[in-house]
Amino acid sequence: MISADKVIFGSGIYGLYFALECAKRKEKVLVLEYDDNAFSRSSYLNQSRIHNGYHYPRSHATALKSAQYFERFAQDYPFSINKRFQSIYSISGSESKISASEFVSFCEHIDIPYLSVNNSLYFKDGMCESTFETYEYTYDAQKLKQYFLDTLTNYKNCTILFNSRTSAIHLNNNSYSVEQSNGQIIETNFILNATYGSTNQILHKAGFSLFDVKYELCEIILCEVSGNYKEIGITVMDGPFFSLIPFGNTGLHALSSVLYTPHKTTNNLLPDFSCQQGVECSNLQLQNCNFCPQRPISNWKLMLDQTREYLKNDLELQYKKSMFSVKTLLKSSETDDSRPTIVQKYSESPYFYTVLSGKINTIYDLDALLV
Fold first, then answer.
1. Which of 141, 147, 151, 201 is closest to 22 using CA atoms?
2. Residue 371 has pLDDT above 80, yes or no
């Protein structure tokens, strides 16, 4: 039997941030990771945007929380930050859920900077109502991952158990027993579920109520852009549009689309997808979609056509690779596109917490759990 002060499910940024903070407090920490490496899913497989609020004009609470932590995150992890580009947000001339004047009012209310620029710098005539230069960065997930892994090696009181297979979580008086498929038992009086895509799956193993969520099997495309767009990130708002922004410090851009990034959607509390037939992946344990023989065929052509509809003809894009992951979204967010960071307590003495968040820089909400 193994005992630990803190057991953390998931070695994405939320799990490793909390592990490091607990290790600094001389607590014995055990991180349980299903995959064979950290940052192998949503912490890496996303746009890499460090949100400053602009993305959420219909949810001021989400925007304020993002802006609150924006500079702190950039100052804490400067080695991973890409500031070397212009962040351009544009309001589409049709089908947008907000107008340009509403976006301006929103920025002023949240107190985030913006500068009006000419549509013709980036977009074809008539495609956008207004265009703005904003203040936003991206992060390099590989550099961030390496920082956490390297730093944690200095703490002998923290262990990351890769390829972990948890079969059950039991409450025994004042502690939890985490049972592994190899028969190993881990005892702890504190659990943090920081798995994101597998949030409800871990809660199910522990016998707790599940979040009312939907799941999307999503594709982010990495591409090379022509030199005139290398230091530009473009986001078209607010509706069925797209983003094309630098992917950290890789020299590539991440292309995503509200219409074409999601390939499959399920509204079940546990992630049921048709592609799970005949493979190890199931609604009780998600596998890594990037290594699955049944992963979707890329929507590259559809996304490329969408960018060409809006952007000037001087932009050239070259496909490099597709990245797939499962996004977990609260159903309550569908009306206003909110992305709250939820830290929910399920039990006390022993403690069981779950964090569910789709934004990197709100990791600091976990500071409240450092007891």
1. 151
2. no
Identify any residues that bridge with 331 across adjacent strands, giving them in sequence order.
none
Beta bridge partners of 87: 134, 233
**Mind listing the pLDDT tens digit for each residue in 190-209?**
999 999 999 999 999 999 99
Sign of CA dihedral 195, 205, 181, 267: negative
pLDDT at 173 over 90: no
Mean of the per-residue pLDDT values for the chain?
96
Region of 370 (left: φ > 0; alpha: ψ -120 to 50; beta: rest) is beta
Q: Is the pLDDT of residue 368 over 80?
A: yes
Q: Identify the residue whose tokens are 């009306």.
A: 335
> What's the CA gap between 183 and 1, in Å, rounded?
9
What is the rounded distance in angstroms from the CA atom of residue 104 to the CA atom of residue 83? 23
Q: In what order do the strands lie in the sheet with 6-9?
A: 158-161, 29-32, 6-9, 190-193, 351-356, 342-347
Q: For residues 360 and 5, what is the distance between their CA atoms, to the nearest angstrom?
A: 25
Q: Which fold has domain 2-369?
A: FAD/NAD(P)-binding domain (3.50.50)
Give pLDDT tens digits for 24-34. Answer: 999 999 999 99
Q: Which of 115, 119, 136, 137 is nearest to 128 (CA)?
A: 119
* Paired sense of beta strands 81-82 and 137-139, if any: antiparallel
Q: What is the DSSP string of 81-127?
A: EE--SEEEEEEESSS-SS-HHHHHHHHHHHT--EEEE-GGGTB-TTS
What the block records as the tokens of 234 is: 């473009």
Judged on CB neighbours under 10 Å (0-12, 13-18, 19+), 71 is middle
Phi/psi zone of residue 152: left (φ > 0), alpha (ψ -120 to 50 degrees), beta?
alpha
97-109: average pLDDT: 97
Digit-coded pLDDT (tens) for 14-50: 999 999 999 999 999 999 999 999 999 999 999 999 9
Cα–Cα distances (Å) from 142 to 48, 81, 99, 249, 284, in that order, read 11, 11, 37, 9, 28
Task: Give the model's pLDDT for residue 229.
Answer: 95
pTM: 0.96
Burial category of 345 from C-beta neighbours within 10 Å (exposed 0-12, middle 13-18, buried 19 and up): exposed
CB 285 within 8 A of CB 201: yes
